[in-house]
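ok new one. same drill as before - structure tokens go in, u give me an amino acid for every spot. 371 of them this time. try not to just spam alanines like last time pls lmao
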């Protein structure tokens, strides 16, 4: 049965519903039974929607898609070791967030929603705005005042209404949260349908590796939606006996904003709001991630860990990646900096996957400032 389960009070809510948080204020998770008819899947178009039996949309006529493709899994050599990098910067809006936006806005269309609100450091807002434009749903996007022009211009160009909020990233989130009293909140971290869209990241990797799981997956973590989506995707594949083990999940945070890394290494495991310093990896600068406890649990369960990277390491990884012909944004380079650190202690035969999360063209101003 498909239903929403509250993380805080344990109450279940039957679907369909436009609830995006519990009546008690708690976070909702979606309980949903997926299946993987492998032979059918392999005959379908190379796109995330080929796994439609694992995506919680009741009627496929509500699907909102920009024709996004199954992104390449490219083998690259780092520090003498071959690893695989998923090319999610190639999505229609230039980031992996399209995986979540496509499913979340399909659900909004299915629910008959006419208007959504979302807050973002840029990329989630662009993705939600683009899919809303395609679905003819109006969209208000809240971003911090200092968001780069490449991202604000992109959001506006899809016809979304842009609200620039002074103050911190948290002030922006609060402004959207208030607006969500009246409109559907298409939040990538509150709304469970977004996370169910990100499962396709795990599905594609396993299919591209011949329906087998890698040993290790290294991901940047801000709100942790990518990591949680990956964890859920691998879990569903394991339950369906498509794969036989779950990869170790490694979360990468900027040293200047690393609340989860700190909590992970503390015996209490308690997450404190991080007194953050500015970081070039703006997309992961989240001082108190909403689903923090779930992220810590997911990493712990897979015997994974957290790695922090300095500003210098992020800039070096960004430059090194550009010099190979891949134009990614600084936030995306944080994962590559973490990957380089992890490789030094990896096992010889270990199959490692990481990701390019966002396209460089979104952040030209930032990139030119790094030299
Ligand atoms: C959103 C984003 C991240 C972080 O993803 P979370 O789900 O918030 O952890 C990393 N890189 C880029 C380019 C992003 O847009
Ligand atoms: Zn509740």
């Amino acid at each position: 049965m498909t239903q929403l389960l509250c993380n805080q009070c344990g109450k279940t809510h039957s679907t369909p519903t436009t609830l995006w948080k519990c009546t008690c204020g708690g976070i909702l998770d979606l309980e949903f039974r997926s299946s993987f008819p492998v032979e059918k899947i392999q005959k379908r178009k190379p796109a995330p929607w080929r796994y439609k039996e694992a995506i919680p949309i009741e009627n496929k006529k509500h699907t909102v898609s920009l024709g996004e493709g199954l992104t390449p899994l490219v083998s690259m050599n780092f520090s003498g070791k071959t690893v695989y990098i998923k090319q999610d910067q190639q999505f229609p809006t230039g980031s992996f967030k399209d995986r979540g936006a496509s499913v979340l806005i399909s659900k909004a269309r299915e629910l008959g929603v006419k208007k959504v609100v979302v807050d973002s450091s840029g990329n989630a807002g662009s993705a939600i705005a683009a899919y809303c434009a395609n679905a003819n749903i109006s969209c208000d996007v809240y971003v911090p005042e200092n968001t780069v022009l490449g991202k604000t211009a992109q959001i506006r160009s899809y016809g979304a209404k842009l609200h620039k909020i002074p103050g911190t990233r948290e002030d922006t989130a609060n402004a959207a949260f208030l607006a969500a009293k009246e409109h559907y909140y298409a939040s990538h971290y509150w709304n469970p349908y977004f996370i169910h869209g990100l499962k396709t990241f795990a599905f594609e990797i396993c299919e591209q590796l011949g329906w087998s799981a890698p040993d290790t997956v290294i991901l940047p973590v801000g709100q942790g939606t990518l990591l949680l989506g990956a964890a859920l995707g691998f879990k569903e594949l394991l339950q369906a006996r498509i794969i036989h083990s779950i990869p170790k999940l490694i979360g990468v945070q900027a040293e200047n904003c690393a609340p989860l890394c700190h909590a992970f290494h503390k015996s209490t495991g308690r997450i404190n709001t991080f007194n953050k310093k500015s970081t070039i990896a703006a997309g992961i600068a989240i001082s108190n991630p909403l689903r923090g406890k779930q992220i810590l649990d997911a990493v712990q369960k897979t015997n994974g860990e957290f790695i922090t990277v300095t500003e210098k390491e992020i800039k070096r990884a960004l430059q090194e990646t550009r010099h190979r012909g891949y134009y990614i944004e600084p936030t995306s380079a944080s994962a590559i900096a973490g990957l380089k650190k992890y490789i030094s202690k990896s096992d010889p035969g270990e199959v490692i996957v990481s990701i390019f999360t966002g396209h460089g063209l979104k952040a030209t101003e930032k990139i030119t400032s790094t030299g």
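The chain has a mean pLDDT of 96. and btw Residues 192-208 form the longest helix (17 residues).
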